[in-house]
Design goal:
By secondary structure, the protein is α/β, with parallel strands linked by helices. The protein is built from seven helices and four strands, in the order H-H-E-H-E-E-H-H-H-E-H. The chain has helices spanning about 1-15, 20-25, 40-55, 85-90, 95-110, 110-120, 135-140; strands at about 30, 60, 75, 125-130. Helix 4 packs across helix 5 (about 95-110) and helix 5 (about 95-110) crosses helix 6. The longest helix is centred in the first third of the chain and has 16 residues, at about 1-15. It is globular, with a radius of gyration of 19 Å. About 20% of the residues are buried.
Length: about 140
């Protein structure tokens, strides 16, 4: 009995004394990736329905700037920051160039995303990613260190 109480007290001490506040809160979720048209958005909708049926608090984060028709309401949507259509119109880019531009813009404004994610810290988070991520991997490697 004494050993159990001591371990519990040590665990509380560890949580309070040694972990910075950002690490003390653990967030769970999924990053949903796949080729275009593979069902990433449909999967996010189905997973949301399942988790809500199980009583979990869920948030879906849409990070696909070309995703205009979502069957769910995103708690956080990159369209609040930038869209492919806006990049095409403003910069005169094609769809692939506009997608690259949008993701570079998100990387440049990562504080926007991090600030918004703090509000979802009590949720199971589903990240709905763009389908063209594989095309961007080589390009983005130079941006993210």
């Amino acid at each position: 009995m004494e050993g159990t109480a001591h371990r519990a007290q040590s665990a509380v001490l560890f949580e309070r004394s040694y972990l910075p506040p950002a690490v003390a809160t653990m967030v769970f979720g999924q990053v949903v990736i796949g080729p275009p048209g593979s069902g990433k958005t449909t999967y996010c909708q189905g997973m949301r329905q399942l988790l809500e049926a199980l009583g979990r608090k869920v948030a879906v984060v849409n990070l696909d700037p070309a995703n205009e028709r979502m069957p769910y309401t995103a708690e956080l949507d990159i369209a609040e920051l930038i869209s492919v259509e806006g990049a095409v119109e403003t910069c005169g880019l094609g769809p692939n160039g506009a997608l690259v531009y949008c993701l570079e813009y998100l990387a440049t404004n990562i504080d926007w995303l991090l600030d918004k994610l703090e509000e979802l810290s009590d949720c199971y988070v589903l990240f709905d990613m763009p389908g063209q991520v594989s095309k961007l991997q080589r390009h983005m490697n130079g941006l993210v260190e």
